[in-house]
Amino acid sequence: MTEVDARRRDEADPGHRDLFRIPPAEGGGYAEVAYMAGNSLGLQPRATRDELLEDLDAWARLGVEGHLEAGRPWLPYHELLTEQAARLVGGLPSETVVMNSLTVNLHLLMVSFYRPSGTRTRIVIEDAAFPSDSYAVRSQVAFHGLDPDAEVVRLRPRDGEDCLRTEDVLAYLRDEGGRVALVLLGGVNYLTGELMDIPAITGAARAAGAVAGWDLAHAAGNVPLRLHEWGVDFAAWCSYKYLNSGPGALSGVFVHEWHLGDPDLPRFEGWWSTAAATRFEMTPTSRPPATVEAWQISNPPIYAMGPVRTSLELFDKVGMEALRARSLRLTAYLESLLDEVLPGRPLVQVTPRDPERRGCQLSVRTTAMGANELARRLRHEHGVIADARQPDIVRFAPVPLYSTYDDCRRVAEALAAIFPKDAS
Predict the structure, then answer these.
(1) Distance, CA of 303 to CA of 318 (rounded, Å)
(2) Contact of 321 with 224, CB cutoff 8 Å
């Protein structure tokens, strides 16, 4: 674990750090922070500010005429994001749209795809689902007049394990699938960093007669996805984590083409749900297109969409396959350093060691201090920003776009310094 080795690796495998604004370090004597929290909020691309200002300038110059005359006209602005977003998640353009925020989109999708009937009433999630997903599914069950405690099934890891095994999900669907209306799991678990077997679970859900939905908040921009090919019914993801579109940035939505244009599928509607050609006819009845755009409700927020467009163009240029390859190398390097540091210290990696079962996140459990305190010390004493999840998990995400091998080295050295070998 030497700086010379890490720097040599960075020269050979540099990534795209120059395209991002790296925050200054507040500790450790470094000019820049070792940023390991891209799984919580990605860093700002350098192009974002200038391109967002271009959109603002169009408003100043054109007023309402910017809807049609801006360099990037506002009326069809969301269409500028569609093809790149579709390529990112392995969907067709007709299946993909950027709109709203993540949990709002999950609710809109569950209006269509959680349709409890008879004894088929359950929603299956993972026990370590992000709280917002838990709240959303419970409220949907209650909205249908059912008991969330009875109808929301939380699948747990085996005793003594941290990660939910795919075979246990498949076994539940095989044994209880006739009572399941919807499976809604996280593609990459926010807490452990485990990458679920999306195609296998999707196939099992559909074979059981259930709908297969996915929250891809920690998967989009992190791992390659092929939603159309895998037969996913629907998915949604945010764009402020690995997609680097800014705090609270817009969400993406995927609905498989076999659901598009289905007149029996219920949806909530608004002005943008109707076909673009009919929007200004001002009629009282919507005429939705046979695309995922039928799930839109409101006109697009231009200054929120701008950073998403900037980021998607970056991903389109670099390519997810190249990013995944660097992610595997970078994460493996961090893991090798943690293998040197963690033994004999009150720290343990909870993320799967199999590279195919994880994205770029490695979660570490600390038993000697709270997660918040460890994250504070990493930042202020060593210039490392990581992400704490109370009570005892600190998440490190070596993001392939901008993280470096030297960032990984700094993480390991900081942990070794905070927990001397003789610490109990």
Answers:
(1) 24
(2) yes
Provide the token pair at 255: 């609905």
Q: What is the DSSP string of 371-407?
A: HHHHHHHHHHHH-EE-EEETTTEEEEB--TTT--HHH
3 state DSSP class of 285: coil
**Distance of alpha carbon 275 from alpha carbon 388, whole angstroms:** 44
Q: Please state the rounded mean pLDDT for residues 39-62.
A: 98
Of 198, 190, 304, 183, the closest CA to residue 242 belongs to 190
Tell me the residue type at 10.
D
Longest dimension (CA), the chain: 75
Residues 308 and 98: beta-carbon distance below 8 Å: yes
Q: Are 68 and 75 in contact (CB under 8 A)?
A: yes
**With 90 as the cut, is the pLDDT of residue 175 above it?**
yes
What predicted TM-score, i.e. pTM, was given to this entire model? Answer: 0.96
Determine the residue type at 221.
G
For 309-332, write each residue's pLDDT tens digit. 999 999 999 999 999 999 999 999
Strand pairing class (211-215; 234-237): parallel
From CA 144, how far away is CA 131, in angstroms rounded? 20
Residue 131, token pair as written in the block: 């709280």
Whole-angstrom Cα distance, residue 234 to residue 215?
A: 9
The residue among 187, 185, 184, 205 whose CA lies nearest residue 195 is 187
Give me the half-sphere count of Cα atoms (radius 13 Å) on the Cβ side of residue 390: 4
- 34 secondary structure, DSSP code: E
378-392 per-position pLDDT tens digit? 999 999 999 999 999
Alpha-carbon distances of 10 from 47, 124, 333, 407, 410, rounded to whole Å: 23, 42, 12, 10, 13
Give the C-alpha separation, 150 to 379, whole Å: 43
